[in-house]
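Dear support,

Our group has been running a series of protein-ligand predictions, and this particular one with zinc ion is the one our PI (initials K.S.) wants archived with full inputs and outputs. We had some confusion internally about which version of the output was final, so please treat the block below as the authoritative record. The input we submitted was:
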Amino acid sequence: MKELLKKLITAKSTLDVGETKCAKVLADFFRAAGIKPKVEVWNKTRANITARLKSAGSKPALLFVSHLDVVPADGPRDFKPTERNGRIFGRGSCDMKAGITAAAVAITEIFQSNVKLKGDIIFAATAGEETDSIGVKKFLKSVKSIPRLIGIVVPEPTNFDLVTAHRGLLWLEITTKGKSAHSSMPQLGINAIDSMRIFLNELADYKIIAPRNKLLGRTTLSVNKITGGCVANIIPDSCCACIDIRTLPGQNHKQIIKDINRIFARLSKHIPRFRADLKVFRDLGALQTDENCGFVRHLKQLLKIKNLKTVPFTTDAPFLTILKTPIVILGPGNPKLCHKRNEYVEIKDLRKGIDLYKRIILHFLA
Ligand SMILES: [Zn+2]
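Confirmed final output from the archive:
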């Protein structure tokens, strides 16, 4: 169990190197346990891996979907896993190679225990959750081969909280356009930074209309990056701002884009030199699984959990709603450690994760 996690951390899987090494580690692990995995590689570096435990098929299947990729780290040291004080440190230890390890080990232990399952277990670990979600989209293209499901478990770190909802996100890149000139004669140019300032003042008054969500609270908007200009004595001809909007289930992202285009139109009407455009560079829906569905109710009983939780981050789960089955996020690791320096997972939580997934498998499939 610890060995698999350490191998997965060592198999660096940031966007620049891709997921193939990591997929191979898992493929070798499944093969050694007697399970035949399927690895799909594209663009030389990107990869998904799936494995399936076939059953008699009298019950619907259970699907585990993880992501292989990790966010960048400070240096190569972060890909050399270390063990101290009952913890395993390394990039991806928490997000989410501990979850992958727990699910993969649980599945192989169930396989080796020779219990007769009535429904299949499908394991998928996909590419690019942190960037382009390309892996989960590819996986879903094989949707015809996915049988009827009882539910989906996404083993992202939740500290074993049962998570059924998270907000979506809409990332916009706003560019204001100007005209460069010598800054001793600003009247000859159009200052794109000035235009951005005008736009941002308007944006500060913009309220995204969406009712408060009982579990998730409100929509938020923050401007997180501004670039523009090159030197002190040239009027900047371009300025760019990146905006992160976190949205609620059912919220229409197209409406937000329309509203912002309306702000542009209003500004250009009053200020002829104002020019701006907008690019969507990430657009992910929110997740809200019906808390009264059988899958969630059974899980609450099984885990002796009273309250459902949310996570502040997004996952690939909203893509999986196309499978029309309940989705929960549930896994080892503290979500507060995701994407942080010195990320780690408690070794006891790894074991707890394996036992938990085995109990879930046996509850729904045995
Ligand atoms: Zn993650």
